[in-house]
Amino acid sequence: MGMTVVEKILARAAGQASVKVGDVVEPRVDLAMSHENAALVINQFLEVFQGTGLPAKVWDPSRIAIIFDHRVPAESPKTATNQKKIRGFVAEHGITKFHDIRGDVGGICHQILPEYGYVRPGFVVVGTDSHTTSHGALGAFSFGIGATEMASAWSLGIAVNIEVPATIKVVVEGEFPPMVGPKDLILHLIGKLTAQGANYKVLEFHGETIRKMSTSGRIAICNMSVEAGATSGIVPGDEETVRYLREEAGVTDAISCVTPDPDASYVRTVEIDVSTLVPQIACPHMVDNVKSIDQVVGTKVQQIVIGSCTNGRLDDLADAAAILRGRKVAEGTRMLVFPASSRIFAQALDKGYVHDLMKAGAVVMNSGCGPCLGVHEGALGDHEVALSTTNRNFKGRMGNPTGEVYLCSPAVAAASAITGVITDPRKGA
Amino acid sequence: MAKVIIKLENDISTDDIYPGRFMATVLPTETPQFAFFDRTEFNAQLKAKAFPAGSVIVGGENFGCGSSREQACSTLKGYELAVVAKSISRIFLQNSINLGLQVVICPGIEASEGDELEITADQVLNRTTGKTHAQVRLPAARKGIMDAGGLIPYTRARLMARI
Asked: Which residue of A95, A181, A221, B153 has the lowest C-beta tally within 10 Å?
């Protein structure tokens, strides 16, 4: 019987001719990514070696990536000290894929990995972040793990005891209407599947809409696959994947894409036609609480956030700038923008997007996760409402358990910034 | 016998269990103070050590969804609590096994706060209601880790076996 993309990747990485759902395999890890929680990984890693008499050495420093993004610049002495400890470890172990707090090569881990060509089609990627699913956008099997599991991978170079997951095939057809895009698609899909509808499974994306979609859009949909519980989202590598890696990531060595067999077996097939899709909003306090925009238009909003690993890329900033150019952010509403990487920030400067956004009244912040996880750079006041292009709206997510977070596309966020209430970008502000 | 100390709804996120703003705290000795921090009363009871080891949190579907933060497990492990839920999110389940936090998947669990549960190898007996509920076995792939007492000793043994 044929194999899905992830089955093929796992078979190859485990040195087997084939695998099937439920098999237990131990794939070699091609890339192991952490951010500030490397501080905990280091603790666990050192504990593994305790009493063994072996030197605590990582299996392959060239396959470890560490990117500071969750709290940059450090919001507290505690974080700064964690970051200091990680820098020491990076230097000691010769870890080269390290991105410190910098205005040239810094950014969010899930943007840096594709941008620097660290992820390739067919790779097995693990990351101590649930949104590691993002890298399925480049045809890799990429999934989130905890810090102790990462310590194990750093020690052994394999992911221990992985059960081959079942795959749901998602076929997307049709052309997006104006002001509707990949974010609306993934929110719609999560609403349809529910927050646990893809638990322990992979979402494999197909169809004409996906083939025509840019890597940026693919990253957005794979990024949020985890919000339906998926182990990973994956777009089989294709011409766009190769184009992105060559032209944008500067990759010059061989790239080989993995595609599913025609007779691969899927646990379920979901078909979506986007030609009739309208802007989608995930309402408090669950990502699967998805509504069409007409059900929530007029909701008053105090904070607009554009950014994150989901929607902080150049096309997202372009969408926002096009809507806000020559307009003003409403009084009583504040707008915060976080380019996903320093490179994107620089490109947005060159193209004038940063100027457009600032002239409109937006505050353009440094690249990083910003307020997405509720640590700093934009906490909500009591009972305030945020409209955000990020990926989670759990209670307390933006730092205040009495706050509310609505999730949307950059176009909806920008149109709503002008009015101060949730606004349909198709109808104009 | 273990008492249910709180009954929670579906989709309890890791932000609920361990809010993101405390993620700079990583040491298992320090994370317990922030368990369910925004559920003020429950957090205070935990910190006052109102519950003996083995006490049970009952959850609904998709317990532990969201982030990969391991603090969400170490914070509960610090009080030696157990989780019995209808279903458990993938990363949370793996982190629990890796750290030795007792988690039980029990799709039909019916229990209220104060109920006394008896957790056996394959079922959960609610002594208060008299009903028994079947468990779903934890992934077979993870048995070796459980038998070793967690992923750190398991990895250490694997490393030593390579020499």
From this structure: B153
Whole-Å CA distances, A41 to A36, B14, B93, B138? 9, 18, 18, 25
Q: Residue A231: name the closest of A172, A169, A286, A164 by CA.
A: A164
- The ipTM is 0.97
Q: How confident is the model at residue A130 (pLDDT cuts 50, 70, 90)?
A: very high
How many CB pairs (< 8 A) connect A and B?
A: 152
Closest CA to A262 of A8, A12, A91: A8
For chain B positions 22-41, those within 8 Å of chain A (CB to CB) are: 23-27, 38
Q: Say how many Å lie between the first and final Cα of chain A, rounded.
A: 53
Contact criterion met (CB < 8 Å) for A146 and B26: no
Q: What angle do CA A22, A123, A91 make, to 5 degrees?
A: 120
End-to-end CA distance of chain B: 44
Give the CA distances from residue A351 to residues A112, A322, A337, in Å, rounded to whole numbers and listed in that order.
Answer: 20, 11, 16
The answer to whether A402 contacts chain B (CB < 8 Å) is: no
Average pLDDT over residues A247-256: 97
Instruction: Give the mean pLDDT of A395-410.
Output: 96
**Measuring CA to CA, which residue among A255, A257, A290 is closest to residue A409?**
A290
Residue A355 burial (CB < 10 Å; 0-12/13-18/19+)? middle
Q: Which two tokens stand for residue B137?
A: 């076995």
Residue of B9, B12, B34, B90 to mutate, testing the A interface (most A Cβ within 10 Å of its Cβ): B90
3-state DSSP assignment of residue A404: strand
Instruction: Residue count of chain A, please give it.
Output: 429
Considering just the CA atoms, what is the radius of gyration of chain A in Å?
Answer: 21
Question: Residues 112-151, chain A: which have Cβ within 8 Å of B?
Answer: 127-130, 132, 144-149, 151
Contact A65, A364 (CB under 8 A): no
**Do the Cβ atoms of A130 and A32 come closer than 8 Å?**
no
pLDDT at site A55 = 96
Token duo for residue A403: 């706050």
Give chain A's largest Cα–Cα span.
68
- Could you identify the residue written with the tokens 């519950």? B51
**pLDDT confidence of residue A429:** 55
Question: Which residues contact residue B21 at a Cβ distance below 8 angstroms, ignoring those fewer than 6 apart?
Answer: A373, A374, A375, A399
Residues 101-130 of B with CB under 8 A from A: none
User: What are the pLDDT digits (tens) for B103-162?
Assistant: 999 999 999 999 999 999 999 999 999 999 999 988 878 888 999 999 999 999 999 998
CA distance linking residue B36 with residue B21, whole number of Å: 12
Q: Which of A402, A363, A405, A362 is nearest to A381 (CA)?
A: A402
Tokens describing residue A128: 């101590």
Q: Which one of B9, B14, B25, B26 makes the best mutation probe of the A interface by having the most chain A beta carbons within 10 Å?
A: B26
Residue whose entry in the numeric block shows the structure tokens 């559920």:
B39
> Could you tell me what percentage of chain A is helix, strand and coil, using 3-state DSSP and rounding each to the nearest 5?
35, 20, 45
Q: What is the DSSP string of A52-69?
A: T-S----S-GGGEEEE--
